[in-house]
Predict the structure.
Amino acid sequence: MFKISHEIRQKLLGIILCMIVVALFVGESNDNKIFIPGENLKWFHARAILSISMIIFFVFTFIVTDVLKIFKNFLHRKDMLILSMVLVSLFIGFFNSDNYSYIFQRIQIKLPFLILPLCASSFIISRKEFHRILFAFLLMTFFTSIYTFINYIIYFDHINASYLQSKVMPSPINHVRFSILSALATYTSYYLFKQNIKLFRFERIVVLTIGVFLFIFTHIYSVRSGIIALYAMMFLEILVYIFKYKSYKKGFITFITIIISGILMFIFSPSLKNKMINTKQDIAVLQNNGNANYNSLATRFVSYEIAIDLFKENIILGCGLGDLEIKNTKLFNEKYPEIVTPIIPHNEFLYYLASMGLLGIITFSISFFFPLFYKRNYKNEFLLMIYVTLFFSFMTEPMIENQLGVACSIVFIMLPLMVKEDERFDY
């Protein structure tokens, strides 16, 4: 352990945490084409950077903190400790599986659920430091969205037409994760706007301008996961405001304003309009028992049906985490041979239910959501919104079954929990 001043320690910590947040936008490539043969959306991709930034955080922790104290802090922080049980819960999969290599792959992907809480338990950041990290996230989302939006304008007609075919505009990272980050950044701009702490001159004007752009962009980007998360956060914010200030009139006016804004976006955004048309087509396929192939919503519902079938194999332990992929593909091919590319259950809760049964889903749910309720952490509005965003993303995606999804989840849960306890709560 190296002895360094508290001030230098905190500055280095802030830089490392900002690096992790920025790495979210380069840690995954997106295969979406630009519709011009041979061209892709040019962006710097380096999956290793996300892992390297986490490793730096891990090494930094053991450099500046005594080893015994690190584990003592970890055991003392019940919220961080129980959250790490998300990783431990995967070992349930060994009880009912033959293919252990797939389980080890899942453990590797979810390793940050242990490493990051372990490290975060040894640090405390001020509210102002937390705001600086959020501002870094906001700026990175803004620049990435601007870049994506310019590309959209260049290929305006081609990209809008693609929405009718269950596609989305090209983006630097996977469209689901990007839409979630965009929605979260929209809320982050509002969150920073209403804070009293000033990071720099004209901060409120800057974050408000970015927030308005990201609100519009999230609608133009028109990915269902992001839009659902955005409106869930906005409506919950209204409820929190009403609960906090007992101002029903302002809450109602804000609610109407949001509804009108959504209607206007539908009227003036061709990508959103086409996405709605495509969604109706997907629903029609479901209602008429049509061919689900290449229909994203219909294929998702098929994956839900398959997941429930797999769960029924063993209600307590599921079909076995190691065997999930193999059995899932087999059932897809047997029941829906017309679907060219079988997908794993596109619902995180059903994923756990199918692979590890009731024991797995209960263990996962308690571990993952425990930090929100521990010591009334739900009074931290930012943490509350993170959980709302993740809950709705879990309903339509296996969000934490890939490296970036795990990082997005654990990083934004971890950051507000690192804030001083007496500065953590908003109401």
Remarks:
- Residues 33-39 have pLDDT under 50 and may be disordered.
